[in-house]
Design brief:
Cofactor (chains A, B, C, D): pyridoxal 5'-phosphate
CATH class of the largest domain in chain A: Alpha Beta
Oligomer: homotetramer
Largest sheet of chain A: 7 strands, mixed
CATH topology of the largest domain in chain A: Aspartate Aminotransferase, domain 2
Largest interface: A-B, 61 and 61 residues
Distance between the termini of chain A: 25 Å
Order of helices and strands of chain A: HHEHEHEHEEEHEEEHHHHEEHEEHHH
Shape of chain A: globular
Strand order of the largest sheet of chain A: 1-9-8-7-4-2-3
Strand content of chain A: 5-15%
Family (chains A, B, C, D): Belongs to the class-V pyridoxal-phosphate-dependent aminotransferase family.
CATH superfamily of the largest domain in chain A: Type I PLP-dependent aspartate aminotransferase-like (Major domain)
Radius of gyration of chain A: 21 Å
Keywords (chains A, B, C, D): Aminotransferase, Pyridoxal phosphate, Transferase
Protein name (chains A, B, C, D): Aminotransferase class V-fold PLP-dependent enzyme
GO molecular function (chains A, B, C, D): transaminase activity
Chain lengths: 396, 396, 396, 396
Amino acid sequence: MSYQNPVFIPGPTNIPEVIRKACDMPTVDHRSPAFARIFKPALAGVKAVLGTRAGEVILFPSTGTGGWEAAISNTLSPGDTVLAARFGMFSHRWIDMCQRHGLNVEIIETPWGEGAPLAAIEAALAADASHRIRAVLATHNETATGVKSDIAGIRKAMDRAKHPAMLFVDGVSSIGSMPFEMDGWGVDIAVAGSQKGFMLPAGLAILGLSPRAVAAMDTATLPRTFFDFRDMMRTYAAGGYPYTPAVGLINGLATSVQMLQDEGLANVYARHHRIAEGVRRAVAAWGMRPCAASSDLYSDTVTAVVVPEGFNGTDIVKLAAEKYGMAFGVGLGEVAGKVFRIGHLGSLTDAMMLAGLATAEMCMADLGYPITLGAGVAAAQDHYRNSAGEAAKAAA
Amino acid sequence: MSYQNPVFIPGPTNIPEVIRKACDMPTVDHRSPAFARIFKPALAGVKAVLGTRAGEVILFPSTGTGGWEAAISNTLSPGDTVLAARFGMFSHRWIDMCQRHGLNVEIIETPWGEGAPLAAIEAALAADASHRIRAVLATHNETATGVKSDIAGIRKAMDRAKHPAMLFVDGVSSIGSMPFEMDGWGVDIAVAGSQKGFMLPAGLAILGLSPRAVAAMDTATLPRTFFDFRDMMRTYAAGGYPYTPAVGLINGLATSVQMLQDEGLANVYARHHRIAEGVRRAVAAWGMRPCAASSDLYSDTVTAVVVPEGFNGTDIVKLAAEKYGMAFGVGLGEVAGKVFRIGHLGSLTDAMMLAGLATAEMCMADLGYPITLGAGVAAAQDHYRNSAGEAAKAAA
Amino acid sequence: MSYQNPVFIPGPTNIPEVIRKACDMPTVDHRSPAFARIFKPALAGVKAVLGTRAGEVILFPSTGTGGWEAAISNTLSPGDTVLAARFGMFSHRWIDMCQRHGLNVEIIETPWGEGAPLAAIEAALAADASHRIRAVLATHNETATGVKSDIAGIRKAMDRAKHPAMLFVDGVSSIGSMPFEMDGWGVDIAVAGSQKGFMLPAGLAILGLSPRAVAAMDTATLPRTFFDFRDMMRTYAAGGYPYTPAVGLINGLATSVQMLQDEGLANVYARHHRIAEGVRRAVAAWGMRPCAASSDLYSDTVTAVVVPEGFNGTDIVKLAAEKYGMAFGVGLGEVAGKVFRIGHLGSLTDAMMLAGLATAEMCMADLGYPITLGAGVAAAQDHYRNSAGEAAKAAA
Amino acid sequence: MSYQNPVFIPGPTNIPEVIRKACDMPTVDHRSPAFARIFKPALAGVKAVLGTRAGEVILFPSTGTGGWEAAISNTLSPGDTVLAARFGMFSHRWIDMCQRHGLNVEIIETPWGEGAPLAAIEAALAADASHRIRAVLATHNETATGVKSDIAGIRKAMDRAKHPAMLFVDGVSSIGSMPFEMDGWGVDIAVAGSQKGFMLPAGLAILGLSPRAVAAMDTATLPRTFFDFRDMMRTYAAGGYPYTPAVGLINGLATSVQMLQDEGLANVYARHHRIAEGVRRAVAAWGMRPCAASSDLYSDTVTAVVVPEGFNGTDIVKLAAEKYGMAFGVGLGEVAGKVFRIGHLGSLTDAMMLAGLATAEMCMADLGYPITLGAGVAAAQDHYRNSAGEAAKAAA
C-alpha cells in the first residue's frame, strides 16, 4: 500500500490537505471558550449540509454505527416495532442492531441491487392500522451495492399511508456527496459519519434530529449514557460537551463544512455525479455493469462493479493492494466475490479517478479478464474532458 | 488561549510531536493488511502498559465514558447489583451511568478528598452472603479531587470477603502515568482513554478484559452493538475491525506504547511522581494544600489545590485563560469553586511545569491571594534540580 | 533537548503552529500562477514590515549571511571602500566578508557592548572628502552582545557630513521585532532572515533595496549569479523566479507578514519590549547585568547576560541543554564565556519566558551562582502581570 | 492547481509523507549536539548516494544554481579557462554563470537533444597542450531536453588526452534517480539539489568534493563567503555549521538518504527506469518522440516530448494546469513551444504516472492533437503490469 496513491474504498476518503491540517492541532481546553469557537460553527455548518433549519445536530466521538445506535436508543423502547428493508450489508447491519437492542423489526426483504421498495413500505405502513411501527429505517445509499434509495419517496409513501412513524435515514455514505434534504424530506433522524462526504478521518458520528425525534427521547427507555441526546443537548447550549470531545476532528469538521458551503452544495453534488459518471462509462467500456439494478439507482459515491462469471471480484482488490499499492473495496455479504467496489466520494480530481480506473484495468488484465487496457480510461477521459468546467474546477 | 503554551488540564494532555505526526496520516484501507500492521502492535503494547498477559485489549472509537459503558453493558444484565463508592465527579458519573442502565448500585458515600474506603467495601461484600453483587466498580484516580485509590487493597478486601464479584477499574487518568497492575491486582476490566497517559487526542476508549470478563459477555443481556466485545474479539483475530476504526489514533497509540516501553514503565511512573512532587511543594509554599485528605492519596497526575476561604478557584482558571492564555482545570461538583486543578500527566518537562506554576502564581497575585510571587516556583525548582537525573531526562 | 520546551536562542525562534503548517506544503509548480499567488503577497507584506514604499524586496533561498553577500556583491566593485564599526561577532563577520570580497574596509573598532559610534562614523565620513567610501555598513542589532544601534542616528550623521555613501543595515535580528523604518531612516539595503522576527525556519535571506541600491547594481563588478539582483528583479515582474524557489518558506512568509500586520507592527514591537523588560528585571534580580553598556542600547530581541567573575557562561548553556533540555545561546568571540544569551524574539508568551528564566535559575543554582531560586522569576512575573493587556494578548 | 494531484514537473518532485514530516520540525539549537545527531547521518548518507568514499559532502542552504556557483568560486580564479558543451538550458546557464564570474569558457556548441560530445571534448583537451583548461563542466542530465550524458565517457576522454583538468558535474536532476559513481567516474565536484532525486523541498545545494577539488580551494581567488568550502569544512568537523543551517531540510535529507539506501540504490535506479520506460512507450503510442536524439540518451528522470508541427507544447502545460489542475513542464530556450516535459523522478507509483499520462492525453485531445484517448495509457499499463515486481514494490 502506498501513501502516495489515492484510495478508492467507499470511505474513509482521501483527506484534503487543509482538512488534515485542521484535524492535527495542539490540545485546547475543551471546557474553555476556545472550544466553543470551534464547535459552534461546526454544528451550524452541519445543519446546512443536512438541509435542516428546524433540526438539532449532535456529534459523538464514534462512527456511523454508533450513530445508528444513538438514533434508536434515544427514541425507542424495548419491544417497539420498526420497519426496514434489507437490500445490502449496511441495511442488514442496522436491522441486526435493532434486534440486538430488543426491537421488533418488520423486515422487507429486497434483492441486493435494488433500493428501498416504496410500494412495499407503503403497504406495510397501510397494514399497520394500530400504528405499532414507531419508525421507518432507510439506508439512503447502500454502500455494499452502490444503490441509492428515494428518501423523498419514502416520506411520500408514509404520508399517503397517513402513518405517524418517524423516518430515520442512514446517510453515512451519501450526506455531503449527494443531495440530502432533511427538512424537505421529513427526515427525523439523519445519521452521517465524518469519514465520507465530510472527508475527515473516521471518529465522529454526526446526527441531525427533527423536533419529533428530540421529543421522542423523553419517553424512550432503551438505556444509553454515552450516546444520550439529553446530555448532549443540555451541554451544547453553553458551547460545552458532556465528556471529552474529539476536538481535532470537530475542528476539521468546521473546515469541511466551510469548504462544502464555499463550493456550494449543488456544485459538490454535481462534481460527485460527474466523477461517478466517468466511472460508469469506464465500467460499460469494460463490458461490465454496476450492481445497481437500474440507472436511477446508481450511487454517485460508490460503484459496485459486477465481475463476469468465473471471476472473483475480491481478487482484483487483493491484487491492486499487493501489486499496485491501491485500495478498492471488496464485495460484502451476498455479493462477496461477485463485485468489487470503486469508491468515488469526497475530494477527487479527474486525474485521481483515472489513476484508479487505470489500475483497476491492469489488475483485470493480470487476472485474465476480457478487457482492453485503456478502454475504460478512454471512456472516462472522454466524459471528463467534455464535462469539465465549473464542476471540474470545484475539486481543487 | 495560546497554542504555544502547554496545557495543565487533567487531560487531554500535551501531545508530543512524534505522536501528533503518527496520528496525522493519510487514509489507509482498514480492511487491508496495512491496517493490521498498525493495529496488532498497538494492542500488544497496551497489554504491556496495563500489566496483563492473560487479558484481552479492546479499542473503541469513543472516550473513557464509552469505555465505562462497554464495561457494564458487556458483562451485566438489567437488575444486576454493583458496588461502588462515590467520592468525586467521575465515580459519581459511573454510578449514574449504571443506574441509567437499570443496574442496582450499592453506593458507599465517601467524603470527596478521600479514596476508595477499603473497610467499607470489605464490609459490604461480607454482608452480601448471597453474592448479589456482580461487580465492584473502582475509580483508580479520581480526577476531580486528585485522589488515588488502592486497587490492590480492594482486591485484597474482596479476597478476604471471599466474594466472587468482578473488579472493574476506571483507570482513565492513571493508566500510563501511575503504576497499574491488571493481572497482579486481579482487575477484570480496566478502562483507559487515549487522551491521558497515552498522550493522544481524545477519541479512543481502551479496555483490558480478564478471562472472567470475557466469559461474562456470554450471559450479559444489557443491549449493545457499537460497544459489543463479541464483534470486536471476533474481528480482531484476523487483524480486522467490526466497523471503521480510527486508524490515525491507533497509529498514534502504537507510537505511544512504544515510547512508554522504550522509556520503561517504572521510569514513566517515577517521572510523573517527580513532576507531581514539585507541584505539591509549590502548593505548600503558597500556604495551601491538595484536596486529597492525606499524602498517601496524592495523585501523580492531577493536583486539586484547595483555595483559601473567601476565594473562588474557578476565578484562577478563568483569569489564566483570558489573561495568560493558559489552561488549568476548574473544581467540579462538590468542590466547585473550592479548588482549582493542575493537571500534570503525560509528557511534561521541568520547564513546562514551572511555566504552569509561575502562571498560577501570577493569577493568584492578580486575585489578591496571600502568596509571594516566585515562592512556589522556587520550591519546585529546588525539587526539580535536586532530583533531576534519569527521570528528568526521560521526559525528552 | 526536548522538542516540547521553547527555545531561547537568539534565532531561529519558536515557530508558531500556523506558520509551521504554512511551510509544510505539497509541491506546487513554481512556474505556474499558483506560485505567483503565494509570492506576491509575501513580497508586499515584507515591504510593510521593512517600512518601505519606494523599495524593492528580494528573497533568496539562503540565510542572513547570504543576504550580506548579496548586498555587497550587487552594489560594489573590488577595491571599493566601505565604512563599518566592529562591536560584536556579527559586525565582525560582515567586515570579514567584505575583506574576502576584495573591498577596502575602514573599520572603527568599538568596545563590545557598545553600539554603532555615531560621532566616529560622522568623523570618518567628514574626513572622506573624496567620497571614496561607497557604503556605510551598520548592524542594527548586534546579536552577540544584545546591543541595538541607532540607525536613524547614522543616517543623520551621514547627512550632516553631506556624504553620498549608501547605508546598508544588517537587520537580521531586529526586523519584525523592533522598530525599523527603511524609508524613514534612509536605508539603502536592509538585510533580514526568515528565522528571526519572521518566525520561520532558516532558509530565506530577505532584502529590501532602495532605488539607489537598485541603481548601483548596474555598475557593480563583483561577480555574482546566484545572488544577482538583476535576475531576481527581471523575473519577479511576472511573478516568477530565476531558479527554483523555496516555495514552502515563501508560503510561510506570506503567513508571517499577515500575522505581523494583523497584530499591528507597533503592537509587535511593544510585545517584544514587554517580554524583554521582564528578562532584564530578572537579570537585575539575579544581581547581574546585560552586556549592553547602557539601557538605551538594550536589545528587545536578545539579552547577553554578563556572568559574575569566576563563572563561565557557556556552562549554563551546556547544563541547560543536557540537564533540562533547554536551549540558550553561548557567548561568542570576545565575550565567549563572559556572557550567556537569552533570546526573546518571535512569538513568546509570558509563560514561555518564565519557563526560560526558571530554567536559567536552576542552572545557575546548580553551578553555584550566588542567586536565589525564584528571584528572577518573581521580578519578571511582577512585570508581566502588571503590564499585561493588549500587548500580552497579542502573543496568542 | 490541486494539491491532490501529483506533479510532473522535472523537480521539485512529489514529496513522500515521511519526508514532509521529517522536514516539518520544531526549532532545535543548531549549535547543540542535537543538530550534530541530525547532520552527520545526512552527510554520510549523501556520500553513499554520490558513490564516494574519498570525497567530502557540503550542504548549502541554497539551490542547484548556488551549488554550481560554489563549485567554480571555490576552485577557480578569474581568467581561468573551463571547457563546457552547451546543449540545453542548464548547460547554458552554467556557462553563463562562469562568464559572469570572469572565467574564460571554451564552449562546444552541441545540438539540443544530443548529449555531451565525447570526441569534441577529447579533441579540445588534446589541443590544450598548455593545460590552460582547469576544469571540464558537464551536465549529467540536461533537464531541458531529457538527455543524459556519459560522464564515465568524459572521464575516459580526459584520461586519453592525459589532461589534468578537474571534472565538475551538474547532477542536479540525476543524482539519487540515475546511476552516479563519483569515485568510479573520477568526478571532482558533483552538484545536486534537494528537490530532485532526494525528494525534498527546494532549499539545499548538495555537493560532493574530491580531494583534488578540496585542494583547489586553497589557490582559488574567486571571492566567496556564503559559499566558502573552507568555512564549511572547518565547522563540519565538530558537527557544526558556519551560519544558521536549514535544520528541517537536513533532517529531511537524513530521512531521504536512509530511504534510498533501504530500498537499495540499484533498485531506485531500476524503478526510475521502469517508470520512464512506460512514459516513453506512451509517447510512442501517441505517435510522438522524445527530444533526446537517440535511445541511449534517454533520461530516466524527465522526458521532453516533441509535439507535432503546428502545435505549441506550452499550450498543453497551460491547459493541464488550468483545466485539470496538473503540472507538467514547458519547453525552455531553443525548444520552447517545441516540446512539453514530463518529469518522472522521485517517488512515483504506477498509478500516479498513469494519472499524468491520462491527463496529458485529455489535454492533447482538447487541443486537437491527432491522438487516441487511452492509447498512451494502454502502452504504459502494458509495460507496468508486465514489469511489476521488486521495482514496483519499491515505490511504496
